[in-house]
Write the structure tokens for this entry.
Amino acid sequence: NAMAAALTVYLPPGTYLTDPIVVTGYGRRLHGAGAEGTGATGATGLGTTIRARGTQTEVVRIAGQNHTFEGITFNGNFTTAVPVRLVPTSFNITFRKCIIERATAATGKLVYLHSTYFGATSQIDKVLFADCVLKQDASNDTNRALYCVEVVGSNALEIVFENTFMASAASIVKITDGAGISFKDCQGENFTTSCFALTGSGGYQSIS
């Protein structure tokens, strides 16, 4: 209920099984106790994990403005096509110190910025992933997603990944039709096809 208002919500350590969470409106802030990869060596079990309850399209779908997510693991439980999905009207969205993992094996995408969602034409703009980990499976490097990140549509603008580690997918990043996306001090590894798959025309990509 707190997420229905412009409030800060703190989730204590634990695993929270959920149906898809839809975050809209203005100024939601969801903070956890810290993010740990499920099954990772040295994990303490003291982090905050939001995990898919069953087979579903996403763990969280984001629209609206000025939302912040920090210190949370978003776990698709290998039954979720897209653990984190951003759709049009997403503006000024920040993920900080989060882990995104366990999309549907081989076909899932850990993060999907989908600016043509259901034919929409408005923008996804000013999105930041900072100090995050996008890795399909912390306990098994051979278990891969399709993409760690997919960005679709020319209305996805000013998307920034900063100091973020991405691993275990056929391609680490797929960009289609002119998305504006920047990578700063990021690392990508354990891919089978390509690190970057670029299709369509226009737009810009920056790697530094």
In short: The chain has a mean pLDDT of 89. DSSP finds no helices and 20 strands in the chain.
